Amino acid sequence: MSGVFAGLVRPAYRSVRRTATAVLFERRYGVRTDEVVPLDAFGLEHAERERYGATGWLTLRAILPRRTVTADDVFVDLGSGMGRVVLQAAMMYPFRRVLGVEIAGDLHRIAEANIAANRHRLAGRDVSLVHADVLDFEIPDDVTVAFLYNPFLGSIFRTVVDRLVESVDRNPRRLRIVYGNPREEEALLATGRCRPVRTLPGLRPGREWSRSNSWRLYEVLPRPAGERG
Ligand SMILES: C[S@@+](CC[C@H](N)C(=O)[O-])C[C@H]1O[C@@H](n2cnc3c(N)ncnc32)[C@H](O)[C@@H]1O
Asked: Which amino acid residue places its CA nearest to atom 2 of ligand 1?
């Protein structure tokens, strides 16, 4: 796509999407999630940490079919921002527990307000928001769906993926990883333990824009029998 075309199409697309999100999600649920906020707004900028931007409000149900989630499942959004996906996971699925972890205190507090505004829609669902750097967060060994919308890169990403795999080794179970704008997919596949099982292609003109809108669902494979200690 030529630069001029991209320069015209992208802002128009974003403006239509923002209007639809405002009417169909933000106003409907009385929440504030549809912003883009760089982490330097909070003095938290770091080469491996990504800015806040919310997952499209139709994405979760497309990449994670509701019928594949049961009341035994536990969801965590690693880098939960203003809590859009935490709210959707708690409202739309039968998860036993829903967690969100966010490094920026201001975003974490907005997420708390968004959840509080919708308590009556959560049917007593167990929802916890944790204000922490993901590196200081101990991933619970009962998590079965880990959600990552391009929250971090490089060594932070590899550490988190290693911890998810280690968690399955400690407590063998079906663990799925949802990954949006999967910039670090190679690192995920390099573990030899993550198998893609579903893809939502970005379907946008141009390679970069397409990737930034694409989503993958992976399953963490059990440790091979010969490697069990
Ligand atoms: C692209 S946003 C995704 C927000 C949310 N998960 C969603 O999909 O709507 C990435 C989020 O990850 C957070 N983040 C980045 N590095 C982090 C870290 N080390 N620990 C916890 N959160 C982090 C950012 O502050 C940001 O809110």
From this structure: 52
Q: Which atom of ligand 1 is nearest to the CA of 147?
A: 6
Question: What pLDDT, in 10s, does the model give residues 55-101?
Answer: 999 999 999 999 999 999 999 999 999 999 999 999 999 999 999 99
Predicted pLDDT of residue 146 = 99
Q: How far is the CA of 2 from the centre of ligand 1 (A)?
A: 31
Kindly report, residue by residue over 6-15, the tens digit of the pLDDT. Answer: 677 888 888 8
Structural domain boundaries in the chain = 36-227
Ligand 1 contact via 114 beta carbon (within 6 Å): no
The total number of residues shown for the chain amounts to 229
Q: Which CATH superfamily is domain 36-227 in?
A: Vaccinia Virus protein VP39 (3.40.50.150)
The residue with greater pLDDT, 1 or 137, is 137
CB-hemisphere CA count at 13 Å for 61? 10
Q: CB of 97 closer than 6 A to ligand 1?
A: no
CB 129 within 8 A of CB 80: yes
Residue with token string 């704008």: 181
